[in-house]
Amino acid sequence: MNVKTNAAADGKPVPGWKLERYLLGELPEGEMEAIRAVEASDGALRGRIDALRADNAALLARYPLKIAPAGGNGIAGKRAAGSEQAPRSRDWRRFQGGPSPRSPASRSS
Which residues pair with 7 in a beta bridge? Predict the structure, then answer.
């Protein structure tokens, strides 16, 4: 990364998707360290990262995470307890271009 231009070694600016992944900790450690080093010395990159952090915080404030209650009160908990029938299997042949067992074409043979 080029410290002076807020860019990667190839001279291109750091793309937004890479900064998002940086904030989520999803980049390889070498890339994380490189962005940390540039962030510490480049005000423009630090400004972009701070803006993304603020935007993420605003989104989480507006749409807070809802965590399912412990104890399986949802559908998955009911299925695990056996109080609800398993979902019916679907006839995937109709999506593969073949006739469905319920179609008239399949009954004529």
Answer: 2, 13
Q: Which amino acid is at 46?
A: R
What does the chain come to in residues? 109
pTM: 0.53
Contact 100, 91 (CB under 8 A): yes
Single out the residue of 61, 60, 42 nearest to residue 19, CA to CA.
42
Backbone angles phi, psi at 13, to 5 degrees: -60, 155
Two structure tokens written together for 14: 């750091």
Number of Cβ atoms within 10 Å of the Cβ of 7: 17
Task: Identify the residue whose tokens are 């915080």.
Answer: 57
Report CA torsion sign: 44, 49, 52, 53. Answer: negative
Interval 45-57: pLDDT, tens: 999 999 999 999 9
CA 58 to CA 50: how far, in whole Å?
12
